[in-house]
């Protein structure tokens, strides 16, 4: 079972051209900034948005070729979980799950029997008669998932499946969703803005920007070698673009840094925030990269503090609250940053 899709869609200012290949049993997370085209990809796969160019093929069957062949949503072996679940408020949980089956031609009694079985599978048999307004966010999410799975899809697509939940519910529902997705033998594709959701639910991440794939790989691979500033911000590292000159990188935005094995030609230099040291005065240590700049922002993150420093080479450092207090840092204050050459990872751009 394989999904092979090249999705070309022009929609307003969006010029989408995405090439995806996903195997059975694999979960792929689509990430990217707003307007990158993530949801449009899911809508194209499910048949809600016809493609203008390309080809969507599932298990060797063409679903859309941008021309003569177009299989409508109800004719595709695709289950969809929408961001806000799109449960019908006037129908019970049982009737909501049965809806997809009825839309595909199943009789009322048969559809209700199958729906009851799926509600039992997701642990909601006792809520079969409840309408969506009486369900919690986690329960509504499970009803939506049961409705998507009841039609026995070969492809399951989920658009921000946890976005409607508060943080407290999100942890438990994320764990439950992961288990239920892993039990589904088909292909799984989800859209998320949350790197924790992506890391927990997906085997592979595909990052979209401006309608194009800019990076694909596991979270470890993407964290180690982010390919754009947005990805770097997502995974919490500094990404500097420049030109390698053997053991030196001349940065595109000005300045330079010393980095072992920088090579030659266009490169991306990655500096983890925990590798950036802050100093109140000019440092005298072994670091070969030293700059001064103003503190632009201070943000607590768990038991650490992220300090964004501007200047010739803008960097984000991650320090302890105690270090922040010792340095007496406030927004606008001048501070020195230093990074050891051996703490910089350089990859070809």
List the keywords.
2 domains; Rossmann fold; single chain; 6-stranded mixed β-sheet; alpha+beta; 9 helices; 37% strand; OB fold (Dihydrolipoamide Acetyltransferase, E2P); elongated; 5-stranded antiparallel β-sheet
Task: Give the CA-CA distance, first to last residue.
Answer: 34 Å
What is the topology, as strand order, of the major beta sheet?
A: 6-7-8-3-9-10
* Structural domain count: 2
**Proper CATH architecture of the largest domain:** 3-Layer(aba) Sandwich
The proportion of residues forming helix, as a percent range, comes to 25-40%
CATH class of the largest domain: Alpha Beta
What's the oligomerization state? single chain
The best one-word shape is elongated
Q: Mean pLDDT, rounded to whole units?
A: 90
The total count of helices amounts to 9
Q: What is the CATH topology descriptor of the largest domain? A: Rossmann fold
Rg on CA atoms, Å: 24 Å
Report low-confidence residues grouped into runs of 5 or more: none
């Amino acid at each position: 079972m394989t999904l092979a899709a090249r999705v070309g869609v022009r929609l307003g200012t969006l010029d989408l051209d995405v090439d995806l290949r996903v195997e059975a049993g694999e979960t792929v997370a689509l990430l990217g900034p707003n307007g990158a085209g993530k949801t449009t990809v899911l809508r194209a796969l499910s048949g809600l948005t016809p493609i203008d160019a390309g080809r969507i093929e599932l298990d060797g069957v063409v679903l859309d070729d941008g021309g003569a062949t177009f299989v409508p949503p109800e004719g595709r072996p695709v289950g969809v979980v929408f961001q806000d679940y799109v449960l019908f408020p006037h129908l019970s949980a049982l009737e909501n799950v049965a809806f997809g089956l009825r839309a595909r031609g199943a009789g009322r009694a048969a559809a209700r029997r199958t729906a009851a079985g799926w509600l039992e599978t997701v642990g909601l048999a006792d809520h079969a008669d409840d309408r969506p307004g009486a369900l919690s966010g986690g329960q509504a999410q499970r009803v939506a998932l049961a409705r998507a799975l009841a039609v026995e899809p070969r492809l399951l697509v989920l658009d921000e499946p946890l976005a409607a939940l508060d943080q407290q519910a999100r942890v438990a529902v994320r764990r439950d969703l992961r288990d239920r997705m892993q039990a589904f033998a088909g292909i799984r594709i989800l859209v998320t803005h949350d790197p924790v959701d992506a890391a927990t639910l997906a085997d592979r991440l595909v990052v979209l920007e401006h309608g194009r794939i800019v990076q694909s790989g596991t979270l470890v691979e993407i964290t180690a070698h982010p390919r754009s500033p947005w990805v770097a911000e997502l995974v919490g590292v500094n990404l500097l673009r420049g030109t390698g000159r053997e053991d030196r990188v001349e940065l595109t935005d000005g300045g330079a840094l010393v980095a072992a094995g920088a090579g030659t030609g266009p490169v991306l230099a990655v500096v983890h925030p925990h590798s950036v040291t802050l100093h109140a005065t000019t440092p005298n240590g072994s670091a070969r990269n030293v700059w001064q700049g103003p503190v632009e922002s201070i943000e607590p993150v768990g038991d650490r503090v992220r300090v964004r420093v501007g200047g010739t080479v803008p960097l984000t450092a991650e320090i302890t609250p105690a270090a922040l207090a010792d340095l007496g840092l406030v927004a606008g204050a001048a501070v020195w940053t230093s990074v050891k050459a051996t703490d910089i990872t350089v990859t070809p751009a």
